[in-house]
């Protein structure tokens, strides 16, 4: 059962999939229709789930399920991943590669390989206050308040040199 994303409760479980590139307007329509059909038929143990989706910044797929009434089962999550893989194949994009870091820039989301993160920090291209897409948000409520987080407040902080502050 499809619910508008802005009406999903804060406790709703969230899955975040980031595309390796922006979707074209036509691709975004395709993704939206694919997600709409999926969520309208999303079931767990034969019962309809209350879910939603959103496409954020032309490349981030947000898929949510209100598990207060009915929890997502392993099979229902497998079907979700199957849909995401289908979208990947159809559009020739990667949505499941977690070895990327996404930084908010004036042009949108800048994609950086995790392996290059330390070099980018040393070059000053990513700073403590650079806003990192938080694709690890487990709930809709956390996404609403923390979709972008300063690098110094994320797991990326370990890549920054320690600053010695004398007292």
SSE diagram, text form:
Elements: E1 13-18, H1 25-40, E2 43-44, E3 47-48, E4 51-56, E5 60-65, H2 74-91, E6 100-105, E7 108-113, H3 117-122, E8 131-133, H4 140-146, E9 148-150
Antiparallel strand pairs: 1-5, 2-3, 4-5, 6-7, 8-9
Helix pairs in contact: 1-2
* Major beta sheet summary: 3 strands, antiparallel
Query: Which strand order does the major sheet show?
Result: 1-5-4
Helix/strand order? EHEEEEHEEHEHE
- Mean pLDDT over all positions: 90
The chain-level structural class is: alpha+beta
Radius of gyration: 18 Å
Cα end-to-end separation: 57 Å
Q: Can you count the helices?
A: 4
Strand proportion, as a percent range, falls in: 15-25%
Instruction: Label the overall shape.
Output: globular
Integer count of domains: 2
CATH architecture of the largest domain: 2-Layer Sandwich
Q: Report the oligomer.
A: single chain
Q: List low-confidence stretches.
A: none
Helix content, binned percent: 25-40%
Give the class-level CATH name of the largest domain. Answer: Alpha Beta
Tell me how many strands there are: 9
What is shown here, in short?
This protein has 167 residues and is of the alpha+beta class. It contains four helices and nine strands.
What does this structure look like?
The chain is an alpha+beta fold and 167 residues long. It has two domains: 5-91, Alpha-Beta Plaits; 100-159, no CATH class. It is 28% helix and 24% strand. It has a three-stranded antiparallel beta sheet with strand order 1-5-4, with helices on one face. Strand 4 (51-56) and strand 5 form a beta hairpin. The model has no long low-confidence stretch (mean pLDDT 90).
